[in-house]
Write a structure and sequence with these properties.
single chain; about 300 residues; alpha/beta; Rossmann fold; 11-stranded mixed β-sheet; 8 helices; 11 strands; elongated
Length: about 300
């Protein structure tokens, strides 16, 4: 991880994202870039109002820089002011060596009463990892939670989560969700055999994940849970008091923003309960697709 990029807008969740990012930069010995995107959908509002909006954006970004530097004067803090579509431009800054961080006040404390979120757009379009930070205090949270499955993305998420837990001196919890039922046509005996087979597969998946973690991080405290619930529900409920939830999301070659987010990651973000990191893994012949036609954009650096 070479850089942390934080999308800011002057809100309370935005400050939560800055606070989380500065703390993470301290542990990863990297810098933080604060980015404010001035939405260009103002229409024909007149040059004076545009100038006022621009000055407000500059002031907001300078305030965020002061806030970040007050948190830790030793961390390198840079800033950039962009013009265009906020989530699209933040996604264009993302790559495999970066983590893009945004805050949100939208959390789904009751499953099924989810809120729409622009962070979904960002996670769908970003090429690299994305972290979404709720505005609720994170200092009292403890532990890292990760979803376990047999996919490439699931295995990658476990390794990322283990690294995060070790850097933070935290316990790692591996969660395997079983959201499948035996086919209705099976009789009782075959239904039991079917269930035992899938239970055994789940236990093997967790055992394999634990083995990989212990080989790389032998001193890391770990535990595991197998739950019979949909993965999104299980991960959000178990991570409610966690400092970080890590979820893998697979992408196939030729992905675009319409298929860039796996169903579990989508479900987790809709009902966000904790600071959550989405890590993408590419499968297929190529690991990159052509980017959408670039929008016109302007950059300004704020010291």
């Amino acid at each position: 991880m070479e850089r942390i990029i934080v999308g800011i807008d002057g809100s309370v969740p935005s400050r939560a994202a800055i606070r989380w990012s500065v703390e993470r930069a301290r542990k990863h010995t990297t810098g933080v870039t604060l980015v404010h995107v001035m939405d260009d959908e103002w229409g024909a509002i007149g040059s004076q109002l545009i100038a006022e909006a621009k000055q407000g954006s500059v002031d907001r970004l300078e305030s965020a820089v002061r806030f970040a530097r007050d948190l830790d004067p030793k961390i390198e803090i840079t800033a950039e002011l962009l013009y265009g579509s906020p989530m699209w431009l933040l996604a264009q800054l993302s790559d495999e060596t970066s983590l893009v961080v945004v805050g949100t006040h939208k959390t789904g404390f009751h499953y099924g009463r989810a809120f729409g979120s622009r962070s979904l757009q960002l996670a769908s379009m970003a090429k690299g990892s994305v972290a979404v930070i709720p505005e609720s205090a994170v200092r009292l949270r403890r532990g890292v939670v990760v979803g376990v499955d047999e996919t490439t993305a699931g295995r990658h998420a476990v390794l990322v989560a283990a690294q995060e837990a070790e850097r933070n001196g935290s316990e790692l919890t591996l969660v395997r969700a079983l959201d499948i039922s035996a086919p209705d046509h099976l009789d009782d005996e075959h239904r039991r055999e079917w269930q035992e087979h899938h239970d055994a597969m789940a236990h093997r998946a967790v055992a394999d994940a634990l083995s990989r973690v212990q080989d790389l991080h032998p001193r890391l405290s770990t535990r595991s849970r197998i739950v019979r619930r949909p993965a999104g529900i299980a991960l959000n409920e178990i991570s409610r008091a966690a400092e970080l939830l890590v979820v893998g999301s697979s992408r196939r070659s030729g992905f675009d923003e319409t298929n860039g987010l796996g169903s579990v990651a989508y479900d987790v973000l809709l009902n966000l309960a904790a600071p959550t990191m989405i890590v993408h893994t590419y499968v297929g012949e190529s690991t990159r697709s052509e980017s959408p036609a670039p929008q016109e954009e302007h950059h300004e650096h704020v010291s």
